[in-house]
């Protein structure tokens, strides 16, 4: 065991909990109040995502992921962002196409899982212009957990002995109780995060269905938080059963109602991912000129997410994706199994 | 006997390694197909977990993503990444199935990059995702991959995920939980394990139509040959029929 062994990766964020505590103390007047935080997505991105910020995107690549917000970040041509490539797939593809980030903490990126690799994300990561620090999915969850608990680091047992550790920002130590080697991973406080949910009230109390991925940890760790929601609900609906609230108002800076805001990704119990359109993204990347035209049409040519949805069949297409989510295309299974 | 292809024998051989009642953490693709096949044949009570939070789903369709809604369809729990990884860390998860661009003789895996400069790689791959976590923390790691000289290499460009590290007792010395490590490597030609002392890859069972020499010819390092080599039983009609009709009816993995 190599106690004191340190990963070479750069830390892009400050893990100091006291610096974070001071920030959260001073948020009293805005996020920490029960005020109406509803704004349109354009304003939310323009007000809360600044050039140079460290950005985190909730969900899992193309599952309950705020892809409408990713489009808006690219449309507003944000620059020099840090990016948390935790479970990033199509979100990273969009942000790479816009070249909005120049440093990344990555556990999973570049790929779109079973769909294959994104040429655009790959080329950007191979260009040498992006500074890269490696982590694993669990290690990044642990970093967000540490931040959400106000701790400077968290001990973990993965990564030991590998190049993933060597290119991370972790430090190896001996457990003071058992003497066993552990890796210490530093708290990660993103400057800003965007999380997409099924329902939120105007104060930012939010709830979603299905898997949480790492969104609860992310919501608590982020200094600023934008919630995009499939629909706004009345606060009475939230207070009727507050145990269902996964993200409470005091963490939230802005609430944007963005129906189908995870499209072309999927939203559990609402719509399945549009695999046909995601394939179009992967195909368009094969030729630079085609891809530039594609981005001009799909992102820069759309004034908002509704424009983009209409480009792909609007509500009719959304209904078809809902049917797919409910297995209606599979006669034997539409009642479940 | 029904004819079968490379992907089918890999998935079938992998499924057979999962006993009823075991817990297994899987990704998308062939690993998921193997778990589904096991569950639909001999291991009805297999508990399947996905790293994004899906625990014990009824897998009707093959997931496209380890976080899509298929991974928690009629599940016992739609949890979080922390829930599933914590279970691995506590010692509750028996198996995991992984893949990778490169594998070495100790079962270490590369899914991060090809090249020598980490900040400017020749080819960038996704990275660890949950692979390093699963291989560090689940009891037994299995790898499904095609037998190919470019994949089975003497030296990895990047060690994303731990196998037996440098062999011998180096894995346990590194601080990774004792008793964990690579268990089986399953290819289109053979099933391999690791020689207990050196922890080097060893061929234990060969699929129909191949010889040890074939496998060695498709491997970039020297393989150990088990004292008694088994012959992998051919896929049964039942295994093939469940695989083709219920696991991958659209032929995403096994072809049409």
Quick recap:
Chain A is an alpha/beta fold.
Explain what the structure shows.
Chain A is an alpha/beta fold. In chain A, 34% of the residues lie in helices and 18% in strands. Chain A has helices at 17-25, 41-48, 67-75, 90-97, 119-126, 137-148, 163-166, 215-221, 235-240, 275-284, 288-300, 305-311, 314-325, and strands spanning 54-57, 81-87, 101-108, 131-134, 153-156, 171-174, 181-186, 192-200, 206-207, 224-232, 254-257. The longest helix of chain A has 13 residues, at 288-300. The mean pLDDT of chain A is 95. Chain B starts with 5 loop residues before the first helix and ends in a 9-residue tail after the last helix. Chain B has a single domain (6-182, 236-247), classed as 3-Layer(aba) Sandwich (Glutaconate Coenzyme A-transferase), CATH 3.40.1080.10. Chain B has helices spanning 6-16, 30-40, 81-90, 131-137, 170-173, 212-217, 237-247; strands spanning 23-26, 47-50, 54-55, 77-78, 95-98, 102-103, 109-110, 113-114, 123-124, 140-144, 181-186, 190-194, 201-206, 224-231. In chain B, helix 1 packs across helix 2. By secondary structure, chain B is an alpha/beta fold. Chain B contains 7 helices and 14 strands. Chain B has an 8-stranded mixed sheet with strand order 2-1-5-10-11-12-13-14, sandwiched between helices. A two-stranded antiparallel ribbon of chain B has the order 3-4. Chain B has a two-stranded antiparallel sheet with strand order 6-7. Chains A and B meet through strand 3, helix 5, strand 4, helix 6 and strand 7 of A and helix 3, strand 9, helix 4 and helix 5 of B.
Unreliably modeled segments of chain B: none
**Taking Cα atoms only, what radius of gyration of chain A do you get, to the nearest Å?**
20 Å
What's the CATH first level of chain B?
Alpha Beta
CATH class of chain A: Alpha Beta
Largest interface: A-B, 70 and 63 residues
Q: What percent of residues of chain B adopt helix (DSSP H or I)?
A: 10-25%
The total domain count of chain A is: 1
- Secondary structure class of chain A reads alpha/beta
Mean of all residue-level pLDDT scores of chain A? 95
Question: Any idea what the CATH superfamily of chain A is called?
Answer: Glutaconate Coenzyme A-transferase
State the shape of chain B. Answer: globular
Distance between the termini of chain B: 19 Å
Give me the number of helical elements of chain A: 13
CATH homologous superfamily (4th level) name of chain B: Glutaconate Coenzyme A-transferase
The major sheet of chain A is characterized as: 8 strands, mixed
Number of helices of chain B: 7
């Amino acid at each position: 065991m190599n106690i004191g062994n340190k990963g070479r990766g750069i830390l892009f964020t400050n893990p100091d909990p006291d610096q974070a505590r001071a920030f959260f103390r001073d948020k009293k007047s805005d996020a920490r109040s029960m005020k109406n935080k509803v704004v349109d997505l354009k304003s939310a991105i323009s007000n809360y995502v600044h050039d140079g910020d460290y950005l985190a995107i909730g969900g899992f690549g193309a599952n309950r992921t705020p892809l409408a917000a990713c489009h808006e970040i690219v449309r507003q041509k944000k620059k020099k962002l840090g990016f948390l490539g935790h479970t990033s797939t199509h979100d990273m593809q969009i942000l790479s196409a816009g070249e909005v980030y120049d440093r990344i903490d990555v556990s999973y990126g570049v790929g779109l899982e079973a769909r294959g690799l994104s040429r655009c994300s790959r080329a950007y990561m191979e260009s040498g212009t992006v500074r890269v620090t490696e982590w694993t999915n669990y290690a990044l969850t642990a970093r967000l957990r540490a931040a959400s608990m106000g701790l400077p680091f968290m001990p973990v047992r993965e990564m030991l002995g590998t190049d993933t550790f060597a290119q991370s920002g972790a430090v190896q130590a001996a457990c003071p109780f058992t003497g066993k080697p552990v890796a210490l991973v530093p708290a990660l406080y993103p400057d800003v995060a965007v999380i997409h949910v099924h329902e939120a009230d105007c104060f930012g109390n939010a709830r979603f269905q299905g898997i949480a991925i790492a969104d609860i940890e992310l919501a608590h760790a982020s200094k600023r938080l934008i919630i995009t929601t499939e629909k706004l609900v009345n606060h009475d609906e939230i207070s009727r059963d507050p145990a269902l609230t996964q993200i409470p108002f005091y963490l939230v800076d802005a609430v944007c109602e963005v129906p189908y805001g995870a499209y072309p990704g999927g939203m559990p119990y609402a719509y399945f991912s549009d695999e046909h359109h995601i394939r179009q993204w992967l195909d368009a990347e094969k030729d630079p000129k085609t891809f530039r035209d594609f981005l001009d049409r799909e992102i820069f040519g759309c004034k908002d997410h509704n424009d983009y949805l209409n480009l792909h069949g609007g509500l009719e297409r959304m209904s078809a994706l809902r049917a797919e989510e409910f297995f209606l295309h599979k006669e034997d299974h539409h009642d479940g199994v | 006997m029904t004819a079968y292809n490379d992907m089918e024998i890999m998935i079938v051989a992998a499924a057979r390694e999962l006993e009823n009642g075991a817990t297994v953490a899987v990704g998308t693709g062939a690993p998921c197909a193997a778990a589904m096949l096991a569950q639909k044949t001999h291991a009805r009570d297999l508990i399947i977990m996905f790293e994004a939070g899906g625990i014990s789903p009824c897998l009707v369709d093959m997931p496209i993503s380890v976080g899509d809604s298929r991974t928690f369809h009629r599940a016992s729990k739609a949890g979080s990444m922390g829930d599933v990884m914590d279970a691995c860390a506590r010692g509750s998860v028996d198996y995991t199935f992984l893949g990778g661009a490169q594998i070495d003789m100790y079962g270490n895996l590369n899914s991060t990059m090809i090249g020598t400069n980490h900040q400017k790689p020749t080819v960038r791959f996704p990275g660890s995702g949950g692979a390093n976590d699963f291989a560090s923390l689940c009891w037994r790691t299995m790898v499904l991959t095609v037998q190919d000289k470019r994949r089975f290499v003497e030296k990895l460009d990047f060690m994303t995920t731990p196998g037996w590290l440098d062999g011998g007792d180096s894995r346990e010395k590194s601080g990774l939980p004792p008793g964990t490590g690579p268990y089986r490597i399953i290819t289109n030609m053979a099933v391999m394990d690791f020689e207990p002392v050196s922890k080097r890859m060893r061929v234990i069972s060969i699929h129909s139509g191949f010889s040890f020499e074939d496998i060695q010819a498709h491997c970039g390092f020297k393989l150990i040959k088990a004292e008694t080599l088994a012959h992998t039983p051919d896929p049964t009609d039942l295994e093939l029929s469940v695989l083709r009709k219920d696991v991958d009816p659209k032929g995403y993995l096994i072809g049409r």
